[in-house]
Amino acid sequence: MTTKNASVSPANLEFLAQVKRDAELAGRVLRETGTLSATNTFAVAQRVPGEDKIVSTGFPGLWSNFGEVKASLITFEGIVLHSDTDAGGGSRYARIFRERPSITTVIHVHTPFLGGWAQSHRTFPIFYVAAQRGTLSREIPQYVDRRQAEADFILESLKKDPHLPAILEANGGNTFWGDGVIKVSQYILLLEEAAKFQTIAESLGGSKEYGPGVLEQQWARTGLLQAAIAANAIQPSAPRN
């Protein structure tokens, strides 16, 4: 299906094509690394820069046209302006884009080990350095009560923790956000890897808190150390004699 509208500019179509390419690359990497679950659920909502429009992609179907990403250009109100798919679900994240301008990308994804944690309704603590160094958040909350809109839960969670990169969808998948399809997808891979390692650790007595100096070391590597100190997320180590 293709719906054209006079408000769709050539720049809009070029941006839509780029989002599709990014989604195809990210989806391929996540599939080939075993990060995606068998259902291949990977849906992107990407804000069009400077406009109240969203590029919304659907995950490739397993039973037909596998691997082909479909995309729509929709308004924040959900009006389809241009589409090669019937999917337009990305508008459910419009409130996030309105209220959090620094967030340009929201991705809903199903992954095996984070999906396992989602079944447990347990908050997911981050005890894997590769996942921790990219965020000051120490845990990922669970979205349990579906009577509250997912976007509202995300915004509420961000008020409590402005550094939060994701939520787990209880009994389902998970939703990530940030700035850019590739960048957000890279973190999806890392947090799923964290869930895998921490699930294995459960049989060995559970993951342990980081040792002395680990958080300081990790956040220094990604330029987050000063922000961590300012947020009282860490106390700088005293210099050794």
Account of the 3D structure:
A hairpin with a 4-residue loop joins strand 3 and strand 4. The chain has 241 residues and is of the alpha+beta class. The radius of gyration is 19 Å and the shape is globular. The protein has eight helices and ten strands. The chain has helices at residues 10-32, 94-99, 112-120, 129-132, 150-160, 181-202, 214-221, 225-230, and strands at 42-47, 53-58, 70-75, 80-83, 105-109, 124-125, 139-140, 142-143, 166-169, 174-178. Helix 1 runs parallel beside helix 6 (181-202) and helix 3 (112-120) crosses helix 6. The strands form two sheets. It has an eight-stranded mixed sheet. The chain has a single domain (10-207), classed as Class II aldolase/adducin N-terminal domain (L-fuculose-1-phosphate Aldolase).
Q: Quick gist of this model?
A:
The protein is an alpha+beta fold. 37% of the residues lie in helices and 17% in strands.
Structural class: alpha+beta
Order of helices and strands: HEEEEHEHEHEEHEEHHH
**Termini, distance in Å?**
69 Å
Strand content: 15-25%
Mean pLDDT: 92
Q: How many strands, which pairing sense, and closed or not: the largest β-sheet?
A: 8 strands, mixed
How many domains, as an integer?
1
In terms of per-residue confidence, which ranges show pLDDT below 50 for 5 or more consecutive residues?
Answer: none
Number of strand elements: 10
Q: What is the second-level CATH architecture? A: 3-Layer(aba) Sandwich
Task: Strand order, main sheet: write it out.
Answer: 4-3-2-1-5-10-9-8
Radius of gyration: 19 Å
The helical percent reads 25-40%
What would CATH call the homologous superfamily? Class II aldolase/adducin N-terminal domain
Count every helix, treating DSSP H or I runs of 4 or more residues as helices. Answer: 8
- What sort of overall outline do the alpha carbons produce when their principal axes are compared? globular
